[in-house]
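SAMPLE LOG
Freezer: B-3
Tube label: C17
Construct: single chain, 157 aa
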Amino acid sequence: MSLRYRFSTYWIRVEVMKGTVFLISVVALLVILSGCAASIPDKNNETSRGSSFPSWMPSDAKRETYSLTPEEVNVAKEKVKSQLKDPESARFGDKIYGTREVGNASGENAVCGTVNAKNGFGGYAGEVRFAIFNDDVFLPTEMLSHKGLAVLRLCKT
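STRUCTURE (predicted):
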């Protein structure tokens, strides 16, 4: 009977130690993850004072289109390809064009168009509108995001 008692006491000690080690591991993991989340700056969350839009958001002014040179079109295609998972699969739409604010030729110029490329699963995802503005490529995955709104503002005419 004493052997059985010692075995059950040993088993209880081992289970308590396992539970303690597990609890300490979970707490350490939570501390590490909470520190990482606060230290990563996110361009999408940079808002200007008094506005719900990011500070980099283009203005909502009326825009006009203009034709691009073949060199400008090729540069735009290369910039967009650099943002894709499979750059070689890029199929661009017929029209890639520039836009600028009406009456302001030196203002916020942008390049707009559409691209269809393979996604992470290897299939074509369908045409997506893109905009290039201040050397930033906007390829929104959701049109209701800030990037989607930027494309709508830059590419409207």
